[in-house]
Amino acid sequence: MEENYDLTLIIHRYDPDTKRSWKQTYHLNAGRILRFVDLFRKINEEEDPGLAWNSSCEHGQCGSCSVKINGKPLLACELLVENAVEYFGTTTFEIEPLNVAPVIRDLVTDIEKAYKRVDKVKPYIIQSAPLSEKGEAYSITPDEMAPYINATRCINCFCCASACISSHRGFLGPNAMLASIVRLMDPREMEKIERLRVLYSDQGVCRCHSSHACSFVCPKEIDVAHFIALAKEGRFGSKSQKK
Amino acid sequence: MAITDSVIKRLEMWILPRLAQTPVVSIYAGTRGWPFVIAWIHRFFGILLVIYVLFHIYTLSFLETPALFDHKMKFFRFFLFVLLEWLLAIPVIFHALNGSRLVLYESFGFRKDGLMIRRLLGISVAYVFFLGLWMLLGNQTVTPLFFWLTVSIIAVIPVYLVTGKIWKTGMPVGWKLQRITGAFLLISIPAHLLFMHLHPSIGHESDVVIQRMQNTFIRFVDMALVVSVLYHGGYGLLAIAKDYLESKPLQTACAAIISLVMTVFAWIGIRLILTV
Fold first, then answer.
1. Residue ranges of the domains in chain A?
2. Closest chain A residue by Cα to residue B240
């Protein structure tokens, strides 16, 4: 196994002041266990301080560093150089921002606009189940949690939305659907009807074509397509049901 | 079954690496997965079949003038057209079986997707092979009433199962009808293709076609086919269009155009079935 790789990074750039888009090539020598966020930082330090990119936790928990590398949406903080070389079979990588929202600059997208689709499904408990008479906090048993615990690992990195065959124009997106489904499966949530209305709306699960790209690219290995299929199967009830 | 699976696995080991090297496929198989590639093929074949169906109804409309129909059908006896008719079986059976795979996954909780993909490819190859054999032999006979009665009884089974499973879900009615028509077409369209190639005269000679269509039951089946296929195709086209059109007015305009075209062709088809 090589210790260092001579890499070529072709990065999609965008300057909002001049509205100019172009591809810029960077050549760099990098160690095998560097992550792609480290490569961006190396470019900033050694070649081009103007390259804009996004990251926060850099531990695969916040989803802010998601980009497309050779067409595959993934987290730049999770991808090691040696894994990328092995997976793509090349040392040349074309890197572009996710196509889920307008680009602000270079690899940075307007994540607030992307989040508006998640906000539409209200990813929080709308009406909580009543507390016990003693006032203890509502607890969920492991058995209750088991069917949807994987879905709760979603970090809203929007990789699934970027990969989805249904695009993100009319469809709220796989991660937004998942956020809604998590709350539908959550025994603490009492407001199901409002959720079902959004889930089965024209922007909801009927726009999913089951291409399974969401499950394939999910960095948290959530089988998103499975949860969306549960909604299509009618596991969570009908939007016209009585409360 | 174990022998079949072993043969299929060997075939896969030979085919998949070669497929994965083809330019466009390699990009999407590696970055979105094989089901994504299959979804695109499903979509592409669906569009192709809608275009073919409209062309098919247009061609059949010449039955109103039998001599003109026979004249037009002469073109379809050239080797190239016969070959194209045979190749049409590929999008038909692939789209039908992949559609059933999606219904099984989405509505019946069948999650062994890899197994279903292998089976759909295996059955598709067998169907195309046997259809080719039928076409080469060109000497099969069966009464239309017996054939279509049998096919209709078989087609009712998936329609019943799918309707029972999805009707009470909260999915939009249009989506449900697309699945239900799909369940009907899953059996009836591959059967229609087989029937048309049992003997060359069945689809190419106006007097044979007209005589067949005098039977009320056959007329009913033909009308069900026309309505189902145009609804299913129209809804499919609209679903694809909505993936690319963000604005509501554009989506509405697109829905209006597709509805108009499908209604016109449904009218041409039904009028022909009832009057010929």
1. 4-109, 111-233
2. A166
Question: In this predicted model, what pLDDT tens digit does every residue of A215-242 receive, in sequence order?
Answer: 999 999 999 999 999 999 999 987 665 4
Flag whether B22 is in a domain. Answer: no
Distance from CA of A187 to the nearest CA of B (A): 20
- For residue A29, give the H/E element and its range: strand A20-31
CB A175 within 8 A of CB A239: no
For A83-94, what is each residue's pLDDT tens digit? 999 999 999 999
Instruction: Decide: residue A91, CB within 10 A, 0-12 exposed, 13-18 middle, 19+ buried.
Output: middle
Q: Is B107 exposed, middle or buried (0-12, 13-18, 19+ CB in 10 A)?
A: buried
CA–CA distance from B41 to each of B23, B87, B107, B178 (Å)? 15, 15, 21, 18
CB B94 within 8 A of CB B128: no
Count of domains observed in chain B:
1
With an 8 Å Cβ cutoff, the interface of chain B facing chain A consists of 27-28, 30-33, 35-36, 38-40, 43, 102, 105-109, 111, 113, 165-166, 168-172, 175, 239, 242-246, 251
CATH superfamily of A111-233: Alpha-helical ferredoxin (1.10.1060.10)
The answer to whether the beta carbons of residues A100 and A161 sit under 8 Å apart is: yes
Element (H, E) at B243: helix B216-244
Q: A4-109: which CATH topology? A: Ubiquitin-like (UB roll) (3.10.20)
The ipTM value here is 0.92
